[in-house]
Design a protein that fits this description.
By secondary structure, the protein is an alpha+beta fold. The protein is 65% helix and 9% strand. A hairpin with a 7-residue loop joins strand 1 and strand 2. The radius of gyration is 37 Å and the shape is elongated.
Length: 468
């Protein structure tokens, strides 16, 4: 029995509409939710930090414009190390390769949107019959009726954007590590200088006590205590010297150009100026952070793959055209008198044991997982900003108190030195006060270092980075 055209068209329309109904699922638009969450959190966080900054720093001067992470540290010589690290650091080059792989994957996905052309040539020889040669050229193309292939291609583009953000994050981290190493070398040189001064004083004291002991004016306990202090300081100095050497080697390693020798770096013992990025909080946005960008692009990519997975349950239309020529010699078979054929095909999955439905559900769950990864990344970013800002204010107070303590210790040392000359105190009291002065000086240098490093961390938390 033949089916009438009208009935056949109605049956086809019913089948298509049924499959469309199966594919239209009501899952949340996670990318829109993520954008709104990031905007709300950024606005509330930055408004709060700006208010705190104005209350604490009401008397500060006008802020300095900060566009990149390297703007925070005012050391022109540092830029050559950052440039070398960005060009040669092995970890960074791995991110570059990952980005190139994402571009290659996009090329593979996009190729499905274009027609494919295949050519073939075959020959056969059979006993008691003529040789036969066949040439054919086939062009095939799947119509992207539901934009399924387009969704997969756009998802690959989002993967590229995610890889670009990952590369930017790696660049920012390398630059920050170079800056931290620079500051660490400066700190270690200051600590070496402090311990060297302390050792010189203790050695003079040791010689004085030895001279007094020989003439019977001192005790053996005094001599042992002097030897203990001198030996302990020598051990501390040796530790600082090795830490300084390690910091220099770390800076060399970050540049990715190990040559068996440390790079020549004229790093002063005085800390460089490091700008506080809190002064430009109004111009920052958590959406500038590469890790937040990467997590957001992953949501968009998985959302597109989810759409493609549901559209895989819809009918597909493919077209193919071929030219075929058969002859008894290779030259005559080169499409001299070809036969052409055109084939149009409509296919729809009816039963695959729930495979397509399970794949679509897996894609949807992957999208939801990406959304929660984004939420975790965003909350971590907020936490890092708050912790870095809190550290900035705490370390500022510590630096202030230690500066006051250092001034008091220096005044106390001058007073004890005058009393010692007058014979009112002995040498041990004077040395105790002097040792306290050195301890506070070392503690102050370490606190300033921690504060400057924290400003670099705050710059990263706010999304400041090196130039793309």
């Amino acid at each position: 029995m033949m089916v009438k055209p009208a009935l056949r068209n109605a049956m086809l329309a019913l089948m298509v509409s049924t499959l469309l109904g199966c594919s239209s699922v009501d899952y949340a638009n996670y990318s829109d939710q993520a954008s709104q969450t990031e905007a709300d959190l950024s606005q509330r966080l930055l408004a709060q930090l700006l208010a705190e900054s104005k209350q604490r720093d009401a008397a500060t001067t006008s802020p300095v414009a900060v566009a990149t992470l390297t703007d925070l540290v005012n050391v022109p010589e540092l830029q050559q190390f950052i440039t070398s690290a960005l060009a040669n650091n092995p970890s960074l080059q791995q991110s570059v390769v990952a980005l190139n792989m994402a571009y290659a994957q996009h090329g593979i996905t996009s190729a499905s949107r274009l027609p494919s052309v295949d050519a073939g040539f075959s020959g056969s020889a059979t006993e008691d019959s003529d040789d036969s040669y066949t040439t054919d050229i086939t062009v095939s193309w799947e119509l992207d009726l539901w934009q399924k292939i387009a969704d997969s291609s756009h998802a690959a583009l989002k993967d590229i954007a995610s890889s670009q953000a990952s590369l930017q994050s790696a660049k920012d981290l390398v630059a920050a590590n170079v800056m931290r190493s620079w500051l660490d070398i400066s700190l270690q040189r200051q600590l070496v200088a402090i311990e060297t001064q302390r050792l010189a004083v203790l050695e003079n004291n040791q010689a004085l006590i030895m001279a007094r002991y020989r003439v019977g004016l001192g005790s053996l306990e005094d001599l042992d205590n002097a030897n203990t202090s001198t030996a302990s300081t020598r051990a501390t100095l040796a530790s600082y010297q090795e830490q300084l050497a390690q910091s220099q080697r770390d800076l060399t390693l970050l540049t990715g150009q190990w040559t068996g020798e440390e790079l020549a770096a004229n790093i002063a013992t005085k800390f460089p100026a490091v700008i506080n990025p809190i002064s430009v909080l109004g111009e920052q946005n958590l959406g500038r952070r590469p890790d937040v960008k990467m997590a957001f692009y992953n949501i968009e990519a998985e959302s597109l793959r989810t759409d493609a997975a549901y559209k895989a349950m819809l009918p597909s239309i493919s077209l193919s055209a071929s030219l075929t020529d058969m002859a008894e010699s290779p030259s005559d078979a080169l499409l001299t008198g070809p036969l052409w054929s055109v084939l149009g095909q409509l296919s729809a999955p009816l039963f695959q044991g729930g495979l397509l439905k399970s794949q679509a559900e897996l894609a949807r769950l992957t999208t939801e997982q990406s959304y929660w990864i984004y939420q975790d990344t965003l909350l971590t970013a907020v936490n890092e900003v708050e912790n870095s800002v809190g550290q900035e204010y705490s370390l500022a107070k510590q630096q202030q108190y230690l500066t006051e303590a250092q001034m008091s210790a220096e005044r106390s040392f001058v007073s004890y030195e005058e009393k010692y000359r007058q014979g009112l105190v002995d040498i041990f009291d004077l040395l105790t006060v002097q040792q306290q002065t050195y301890d506070i000086e070392a503690q102050l240098a370490t606190t300033i270092y921690n504060r400057l490093v924290n400003r670099i961390d705050l710059g990263l938390a706010l999304g400041l980075g090196v130039s793309a």
